[in-house]
């Protein structure tokens, strides 16, 4: 069975930060695993 690419990405689970466990507010297919708060990012 072939699944549409958009369906695949839509069904991915929400990402959680490896440090604090909070849900990350970014795309599920990105490579980062640590939230901005844990990385101490203050400005983008």
Structure, explained:
The model has no long low-confidence stretch (mean pLDDT 83). It is built from one helix and no strands. Helix content is 14%, strand content 0%. The protein has 44 residues and is mostly loops. The protein starts with a helix and ends in a 34-residue tail after the last helix. The protein has one domain.
What is the topology?
Layout: H1 5-10
- For the termini, the CA-CA separation is 41 Å
**Overall mean confidence score, pLDDT:** 83
Our count of domains comes out at 1
Strand content: under 5%
Helix fraction by DSSP (H/I, runs of at least 4): 10-25%
Tell me how many strands there are: 0
By secondary-structure content and strand pairing, the structural class works out as little secondary structure
**Low-pLDDT segments:** none
Order of helices and strands: H
Biggest β-sheet, characterized? none
Which term fits the overall shape?
A: elongated
Report the total helices.
1
Mind telling me the C-alpha Rg?
A: 13 Å
Summarize the structure.
With 44 residues, the chain is largely without helices or strands.
